[in-house]
């Protein structure tokens, strides 16, 4: 019989949301690309992007872009 090994998902969206909130500040902007880690590969990019979208949905962060193709910046929203 075939054996299937199920590995627990290492990357959690909730955990990533917390990590992102710890990296960014309320008084200055962080460059969007700095929140991603090449070492994590595609899955890391996906989890980070979903976490950013969820933080935006919950109005915990704001994103700005001065013009098309300009860098995107993220800032935490003060409570």
Fold blueprint:
Blueprint: H1 13-23, E1 30-31, H2 41-57, E2 61-65, E3 72-76
Arithmetic mean of pLDDT: 91
- Note poorly predicted spans: none
Portion of residues within helices: 25-40%
Summarize the main sheet. Answer: 3 strands, antiparallel
Tally the helices.
Answer: 2
Oligomeric grouping of the chains = single chain
Q: How many strand segments?
A: 3
**Topology as H/E string?**
HEHEE
Strand order of the largest sheet: 1-3-2
Estimated share of beta-strand residues: 15-25%
Helix/strand-derived category reads alpha+beta
Give the termini separation.
56 Å
**Backbone shape:** elongated
Alpha carbon gyration radius: 15 Å
List keywords for this structure.
single chain; 3-stranded antiparallel β-sheet; 2 helices; 3 strands; 35% helix; 15% strand; elongated
What does this entry look like structurally?
The protein has 79 residues and is of the alpha+beta class. Strand 2 (61-65) and strand 3 (72-76) form a beta hairpin. It has a three-stranded antiparallel β-sheet with strand order 1-3-2, with helices on one face. The mean pLDDT is 91. It is built from two helices and three strands; from the N terminus they run H-E-H-E-E. It has helices at 13-23, 41-57, and strands spanning 30-31, 61-65, 72-76. Helix 1 crosses helix 2 (41-57). The chain starts with 12 loop residues before the first helix and ends with a strand.
């Amino acid at each position: 019989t075939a054996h299937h090994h199920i590995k627990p998902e290492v990357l959690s969206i909730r955990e990533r949301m917390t990590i992102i909130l710890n990296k960014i500040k309320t008084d200055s902007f962080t460059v969007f690309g700095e929140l991603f880690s090449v070492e994590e590969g595609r899955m890391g990019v996906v989890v980070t992007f979903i976490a950013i979208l969820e933080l935006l949905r919950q109005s915990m962060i704001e994103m700005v872009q001065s013009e098309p193709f300009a860098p995107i910046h993220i800032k935490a929203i003060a409570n």
